[in-house]
């Protein structure tokens, strides 16, 4: 009998044992993160960052807001990539008034709505046309529409998959010319321990086959796993000479607006557990560490050299960790890579074309380097 293909195996989902192990990771993180991360200072001390340009998506709330503020206060040029520019401008005003530095903060705002792939293309075109180097792209924006029914974007994709994985993947690829210009540079994906509790079926990334019952939990966790799998292949395919590192990060479980869709009664419970949950400043530490620690590019290069099956993953303790066993499956990761390129409207050779500075077409808008 022929052995099952990778996509057949992906359809079968996690075994009970893997599912239990996944959930024990999630529960351990929630219960013990404060103890495990007790060696870290809050805020995380940062070096002067005057030579860095960083794009931070979703920086009007929660973890992204903290990341943007702290990078800017350490001297970085920060671009807030947000769907609500008015909110971003008002935050900048507040930060400028509060800063102790004699220089004003170097922050720009650019509109980006991840629910529209056209908006992602427009954003990238606009940034690339400036011809400026980009040192750090932080894909932070994300949604977890807890308890809500399945929804689709105008592009036709399940909304968790689009906002948390497809749109950031497209953004990362289209910004490669600027990241190459800014090398050594980093792409950082704010991921989640929830990627441990699911699998991804590359033939059903939109959850429409009916083989799996959709819930917001399935949508969220699968989008985060798809992000790690896509990053594995990006990490493998980016030539060392490009100088671009890719890192996934676990922020820990934090009290932010991510629970805005919880039923009111559960939100009361959520507010009562600050003893175990991080605040946004604490949850920003692992991303800030991944964005600024000088050892990170060497660590990524070492993983490549060792042919490790996954990209770098930094946990909420600011230490390297292994993503889930499922996330380390190169066969499924390759299928997720191919499917993602197809869904965001890019060709299989787009990575090489973008790095070589050649014109690349995207179904969601012509893209010129
Ligand atoms: N909080 C946690 O416990 C936790 C745990 C693990 C991972 N994470 C991850 O951490 C990241 C940040 O989450 P958070 O907890 O800080 O949540 P949050 O407070 O809800 O912030 C999410 C940010 O994403 C933005 N955003 C949402 N949809 C967008 C879209 N279509 N286009 C552009 N921006 C959009 C939001 O913009 P608006 O302000 O305009 O709504 C907001 O700025 C997410 O990727 C999340 O999955 C969080």
TrEMBL record:
SUPFAM superfamilies to which the protein is assigned, alphabetical: NAD(P)-binding Rossmann-fold domains
Domain of life: Eukaryota
UniProt-recorded Gene Ontology molecular function terms: oxidoreductase activity
Gene3D superfamilies associated with the record: NAD(P)-binding Rossmann-like Domain (3.40.50.720)
Signal sequence annotation: none
UniProt cross-references to InterPro entries, sorted A to Z: NAD(P)-bd_dom_sf (IPR036291), SDR_fam (IPR002347)
Keywords associated with the record: Oxidoreductase
PANTHER family associated with the record: DEHYDROGENASE_REDUCTASE SDR FAMILY MEMBER FEY (PTHR24320:SF200), RETINOL DEHYDROGENASE (PTHR24320)
Family label: Belongs to the short-chain dehydrogenases/reductases (SDR) family.
Protein name: Uncharacterized protein
UniProt organism field: Rhododendron simsii
Source species taxonomy: Eukaryota, Viridiplantae, Streptophyta, Embryophyta, Tracheophyta
């Amino acid at each position: 009998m022929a052995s099952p293909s990778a996509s057949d195996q992906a359809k079968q989902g996690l075994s009970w044992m893997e599912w239990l192990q996944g959930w024990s990771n999630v529960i351990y993180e929630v219960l013990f993160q404060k103890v495990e991360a007790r060696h870290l200072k809050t805020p995380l001390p940062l070096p002067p960052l005057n030579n860095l340009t960083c794009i931070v998506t979703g920086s009007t709330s929660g973890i992204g807001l903290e990341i943007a503020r702290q990078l800017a206060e350490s001297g970085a040029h920060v671009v807030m990539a947000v769907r609500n520019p008015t909110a971003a401008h008002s935050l900048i005003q507040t930060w400028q008034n509060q800063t102790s530095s004699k220089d004003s903060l170097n922050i720009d705002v650019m509109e980006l709505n991840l629910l529209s792939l056209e908006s992602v293309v427009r954003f990238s075109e606009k940034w690339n046309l400036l011809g400026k180097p980009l040192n750090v792209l932080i894909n932070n924006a994300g949604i977890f529409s807890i308890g809500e029914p399945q929804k689709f974007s105008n592009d036709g994709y399940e909304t968790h998959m689009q906002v948390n994985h497809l749109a950031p993947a497209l953004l990362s690829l289209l910004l490669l010319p600027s990241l190459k210009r800014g090398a050594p540079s980093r792409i950082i994906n704010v991921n989640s321990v929830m990627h441990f509790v699911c699998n991804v079926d590359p033939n059903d990334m939109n959850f429409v086959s009916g083989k799996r019952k959709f819930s917001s939990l399935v949508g969220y966790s699968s989008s985060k796993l798809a992000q790690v799998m896509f990053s594995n292949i990006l990490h493998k395919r980016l030539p060392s000479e490009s100088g671009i590192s890719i890192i996934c990060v676990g922020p820990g479980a934090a009290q932010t607006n991510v629970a805005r869709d919880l039923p009111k009664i559960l939100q009361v419970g959520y507010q009562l557990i600050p003893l175990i949950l991080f605040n946004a400043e604490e949850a920003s530490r692992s991303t800030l560490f991944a964005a600024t620690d000088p050892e990170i590019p060497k660590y990524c290069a070492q993983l490549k050299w060792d042919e490790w099956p996954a990209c770098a993953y930094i946990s909420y303790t600011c230490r390297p960790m292994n993503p889930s066993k499922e996330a380390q499956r190169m066969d499924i990761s390759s299928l997720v890579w191919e499917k993602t390129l197809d869904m965001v409207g890019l060709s299989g050779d787009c990575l090489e074309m973008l790095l070589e500075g050649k014109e690349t077409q995207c179904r969601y808008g012509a893209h010129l380097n």
